[in-house]
Amino acid sequence: MTTAPMDPLQDKALHRAFQKAYGLGLVLCVCWPLVLQLLLGPVIKPGQNAPAGVIQQLGYTFTGLTFLAAAFVTWRSLKVRGRFKDLPAERRPRVLFREVLLYAALFELSCLYGILYWALVGGEANRYARSFIVLTSLMFFFFVPRYAAWREAVEDSGTAQA
Fold first, then answer.
1. Average pLDDT, stretch 18-40?
2. Burial letters for 11-37: b for 16+ Cβ neighbours within 10 Å, e otherwise?
3. How far is CA 22 from CA 25, 39, 104, in A?
4. Residue 135 needs a FRET pair 20 to 30 A away by CA distance; which of 39, 95, 100, 126 works?
5. Helices in the chain by DSSP H: which ranges?
6. Smallest Cα–Cα separation from 85: which of 8, 1, 9, 10?
7. Mean pLDDT, range 124-130, rounded to an integer
8. From residue 1, how far is each of 56, 77, 84, 88, 156 by CA, in Å?
């Protein structure tokens, strides 16, 4: 037994919320990292520390935190979408908007790690610092559920068990 398709007005409201949130996420996770890449060096001065010892461990910690953010977003998006159809229709757009922006903000932390690593180590770890910044965009594109996934969560196109 499949559920009925979503009401067109609800679909429109949900799609509009997704477009706004995804657009803000693109600014935060794609446009801003591009600007940061240009600012490294001329505006954001590189550090002079060697990438060893405590600073190297800090880099490993940043890497772990970056991947932890991706794992958390994956877990949370599955959990929220699993319960999405149970929400009242008027709350769904707000929840979708909040979730997409939360995911973008968590991925933006990778940019912060890149800037901090650049400020500590600088040119000697140029590619590592820039990689943290690039990861922000990649994670946003790979881990933020698209509109079709949110809509599918509402429609629950699977069959019900008797």
1. 94
2. eebbeebbeebbeebbebbeebbeebe
3. 5, 25, 9
4. 95
5. 8-26, 32-39, 54-83, 92-120, 126-143, 147-155
6. 10
7. 88
8. 56, 25, 19, 21, 10
Kindly give, in sequence order, each residue whose CB lies less than 8 Å from that of residue 141, ignoring residues fewer than 6 positions away.
Answer: none
- Tokens linked to 94: 């707000």
**24 CB-near residues (< 8 Å, 6+ apart):** 101, 104
- The whole-number pLDDT of residue 4 equals 55
pLDDT 10s digits, 96-117: 999 999 999 999 999 999 999 9
> What SS3 class is residue 87?
coil
CA distances for 95 relative to 21, 83, 99, 147, 153, angstroms = 11, 11, 6, 13, 13
Place of tokens 């991947």: 67
- What are 48-81's pLDDT values in tens digits? 878 889 999 999 999 999 999 999 999 999 999 9
40 SS3 class = strand
Of the chain, the percentage scoring pLDDT greater than 90 comes to 69
Selection from 28, 27, 16, 3 nearest residue 86 by Cα? 3
Cβ neighbours for 87, distance < 8 A, ≥ 6 positions apart: 95
